[in-house]
Amino acid sequence: MPRPIILGVVGDSAAGKTTLTRGLVRVLGEENVTHVCTDDYHRFDRKQRAERNLTPLHPDCNYVDVIAQHLGHLRAGEPILKPIYTHSDGTFGAPVYVKPARFTVVEGLLGYHTEAMRQVYDVRVFLSPPEELRRAWKVRRDCSRRGYTTDQVLAELDRREADSEAFIRPQERYADIVVRYLPSGDRDQEHLDAELVLRSSLRHPDLSGLVDGDAGITLSERSDEVILRVSGSVEPETAAEIEEAIWERMHFASHLRSERLGEFTIGTDLHRSESLAVIQVLILYHLITAKASLALGGDGTRAPSGIPEAVHT
């Protein structure tokens, strides 16, 4: 069996990592995906962190070397005994035996912190929403799911700010795709603008024929990057054209097509975002083409280290 294709999704707490990956797992099939959260590798529980005045964002609060070791085992097709951190009460549970499936999705705070980690991934995504938006998401999540008060969440965000600036945000430079959700006036979460920074470390599909500023789709170049902007007000038909164009470039995976891309939940209510659907299908494109490369005897679709590629637009 070929080695698994490994996707990394890194970002600060409540940046939208789980929302993004949930739809990808649904399309690829739960049975085909191994999920690993690097936040399970905390060195200290919540009480111990408080005693040491450490935040979970600090590398000293995490077994960074063990994360790199376990990711290397997964890439080699080998199982790991993964620790479990319970967010609801800040304690550790019993470790679980994890075997790599066809795809491995790795998400968390420090997934790109070391070179050894970064070399494992076939696709590296970084989520970088504006801070005011991320803070609002974290307040809502931690108050509704983890039992905190608003004041507690805001105080913890302030306490973490220095570590976020020092250790989390700098990882953006290592991503192949940077995703930024941008609020537009009073639009709700179904209609957030999305800006995708597409870097030349991967060969991205040609989307230039779909650019239509009047319809809410723009494409621009900057150095070795392409910036794709999808308006939150884009019509479903226009977003569907982009998705269709990307699906056509991976016609060998047509069996994976799903109308459920772009879905997310707020509480128990199901919503859909057209910009989220575009982001997810673009990431799927890279996962599927990397898998095809392995099947043909290659080793994925990343550009050779240290050799920049032309941007494909």
From TrEMBL:
<dbReference type="GO" id="GO:0005524">
    <property type="term" value="F:ATP binding"/>
</dbReference>
<protein>
    <recommendedName>
        <fullName>phosphoribulokinase</fullName>
        <ecNumber>2.7.1.19</ecNumber>
    </recommendedName>
</protein>
<dbReference type="GO" id="GO:0019253">
    <property type="term" value="P:reductive pentose-phosphate cycle"/>
</dbReference>
<keyword id="KW-0602">Photosynthesis</keyword>
<dbReference type="InterPro" id="IPR006083">
    <property type="entry name" value="PRK/URK"/>
</dbReference>
<feature type="domain" description="Phosphoribulokinase/uridine kinase">
    <location>
        <begin position="6"/>
        <end position="184"/>
    </location>
</feature>
<comment type="pathway">
    <text>Carbohydrate biosynthesis; Calvin cycle.</text>
</comment>
<keyword id="KW-0547">Nucleotide-binding</keyword>
<keyword id="KW-0113">Calvin cycle</keyword>
<keyword id="KW-0808">Transferase</keyword>
<keyword id="KW-0418">Kinase</keyword>
<dbReference type="InterPro" id="IPR027417">
    <property type="entry name" value="P-loop_NTPase"/>
</dbReference>
<dbReference type="Pfam" id="PF00485">
    <property type="entry name" value="PRK"/>
</dbReference>
<comment type="similarity">
    <text>Belongs to the phosphoribulokinase family.</text>
</comment>
<keyword id="KW-0067">ATP-binding</keyword>
<dbReference type="InterPro" id="IPR006082">
    <property type="entry name" value="PRK"/>
</dbReference>
<dbReference type="GO" id="GO:0008974">
    <property type="term" value="F:phosphoribulokinase activity"/>
</dbReference>
